[in-house]
Known about the structure:
The protein has 310 residues and is an all-alpha fold. It has twelve helices and no strands. 37% of the residues are buried.
Amino acid sequence: MNTTKNTSQFTDVSLRTAAIVAGLGLLIMAILAPIVQFGVLQKLVMPGNAKATFENIMASATLFRTGIFIFLAVAILDVVVAWALYILLKPVNMRLSLLAAWFRVVYAAIFGIALTNLFNVLQLLTGADNLKAFEVNQLYAQVMLSLSAFQSVWDIGLVIFGLHLLVVGYLTFKSGYIPKWLGVLLVIAGIGYMVDSFGKFLVPDYNLTIAGFTFIGEVLLIFWLLWKGIKGFDKNLDIRLGSNDQRKETKPDSKIAVGIAFGAGVGAAIGIAIDNIAVGVGIGIPIGAAIGAAFERQGKRLDDDRKDIV
């Protein structure tokens, strides 16, 4: 068996493809998210001025709706990036890589829940029945409460996202095929998100934006992933990294079980948001199981590649 060919296939196709997918996904998100944040929300939402916010959104309902759609696309891309980073970092430590992926998937789900508040704003302003049911001041208050809830739920999600970056940063530092300094910067970025999120909940009138200064690691990760996706990985890269315990395959059903557990948890959160926990859990469990099964299948493919090399 030509082991050199198999090693090249694993490093130049699997890892390289994962780098390209993750890099492109992160790049698209880095472009789309600021467009909505600065070009839609900051343009239409006037903090402390409910009347102006109401009028702005009413006059630009199509723009507001487009912003929600773009944010939803960003949430979907987060799941894709979670998968790609899992493949990229699995040779370092499969379990920690899976944990990092789940952190990002859960973050994406929480962000999706946050978006329901923006949908509520749209329904309040465009539904004829809602306009008749509420007095003007009540409608203003409902709109501002929904916009505030969107930001609050997103802040909760950013705590989970910070944990994701901490694990990714650690795996990057330990990998041996990704620069250690990049891992350090990713850990710092994760801490920045967590400090800002906890600060908003624990400190009255918290107005710092530490993540606005610590995000550089995320930007450099995008460029590094795209560069490695174009250049490819070292063909002599030892893909059998870590100890035998780290390389040991998780029992087949464990990933599905973890997926079901996370799906049930996220589904319960969705159920609370829509005031029907049973429906939320019913939706979350099959989705979680499907994601867990996808991770399991990918893990089996990579394990088969290792066996072929050996």
